[in-house]
Design brief:
The protein is built from nine helices and seven strands; from the N terminus they run ααβαβααββααβαβαβ. The chain is α/β, with parallel strands linked by helices. The protein starts with 8 loop residues before the first helix and ends with a strand. The chain is 37% helix and 17% strand.
Length: 212
Amino acid sequence: MLRLSNSLIAERNPQSHVSESFRSLRTYIRQLGLLQGGGKSLLFTSGGAGEGKTTVLANLAVSFVQEGKKVAVVDCNLRSPGLHTVFGVENSDGLADCLSGQKETGKIGVYGNLANLTIVTAGVSSISPPDLLGNAKMAELLEELKGTHDLVLLDTPPAVEYSDARVLAPLTDGVIIIARYGKSKRELIGKVKTLMEQSGTAILGITINQFK
């Protein structure tokens, strides 16, 4: 087992104001009624790289686990995976291996240091990410995870530069757009919003990361 990343503040320092911010996001999602009637899946994306999607998703997952929910996080960023680093697990036998038929869906989830948290790493494959993510097995995997978890959180590449998030969005119950304070450009956020709306998936909100 590797060490948890220092970016996992909700676990390392649950009393901090940053952890409280994630609890506020958790409350917002719960108030939308998304945790009623079985497991739900949420997709996280952004306009560009370095906006903090993985950090926000990981800390939100920990916050829900601390509340007693059973959560699965799925690294759908097959281009530049990062969830395995945050949670301190190896990036092996993951999502790409499942979607390419090398592993069964029930054999790719790993467990880190936190109870009630399932981590599906990106894995490795030479097949184009949009082709893999558009595979019928992706929908099957999500349904399986939703059947055994309260919440499934999907980390994806930037939606403007890559089509991956647009491929996945229709399979989910909602999209959260991540923007970084002082870095994200308004027009790029607008493009992400338009692309996600075109997918027919509900946009649950825009989360501002590193706000001062």
